[in-house]
Amino acid sequence: MAGIDAALRAHLEGGLTTVCHAWAILRTDGVRFGFTDHDLPLAFEGISFRADTGLSALALAQSTGLSVDNTEAVGALSDTSIREDEIEQGRFDGAEVIAWLVNWADPEQRWLQFRGTIGEVRRAGASFRAELRGLTEALNRPMGRVYQKPCTAVLGDRNCGFDLTAAGYAADLPVEAAEDARIFTWGDLSGFDDAWFTGGRFEVLDGPARGLWGIIKRDRFKDGVRSVELWEPVRGPVTVGTLVRLIAGCDKRVETCRLKFNNFINFQGFPDVPGEDWVMSVPKSTGRNAGGSLR
What pLDDT score was predicted for residue 77? Predict the structure, then answer.
């Protein structure tokens, strides 16, 4: 039990102990949850830990070195703690999880046992099982750049550098008509060319689905009606009057970066990389070996 403080170590070595486990879940949207297997609530580090939620964790698998630590959390779905609809909406995806061993008689005596994030969440009836991934899980991510013609940046990220708040590239407006939380239509959406939002983002700004988003599959203007279709339905209720944001799409081509966004200086692809035909090219006495198609 490396890293345990002297007071808690002395308590554990005393024979009669008053310890329990406590878990905190810190979602990416700022919502925080606290749970404990003690029969009374606890509070420390600005978090209230509920005792009536039915959440528990299986044995922690921890190791030295760079191997991945992992465990599972199991619990019951309820309206007062973890709700089924929030799991379905992905609200807990990537949330930070912190687990302590706590002396419930003196919560200042505690030991940080686990810190990581939530991975896969599986639901079965009225309960759920969530995979907990340790801090070393991040070392499994591939690093480096891909040598390809299209841009590898995400529109608006640090590498792209484009300001999505610039006039003409986003629209905030209430939904006028919705179908299956996937197709949305407006009678008037002037100022944007046809297919301007294809490949862009659809973000929900208010209501129960606030914070959810999807990728726009198709943006069409026909017979005076603007229709925006997503690749997948929004995993939450988006009804008439819900405020949403449409963000212009980028197909990663150099022409789009230069002409649509005027951002060619930050283009993250390699537009002049030779194509596959260049590998098959052979010297010839006529024409130029320019890396184009062989004919």
Answer: 60
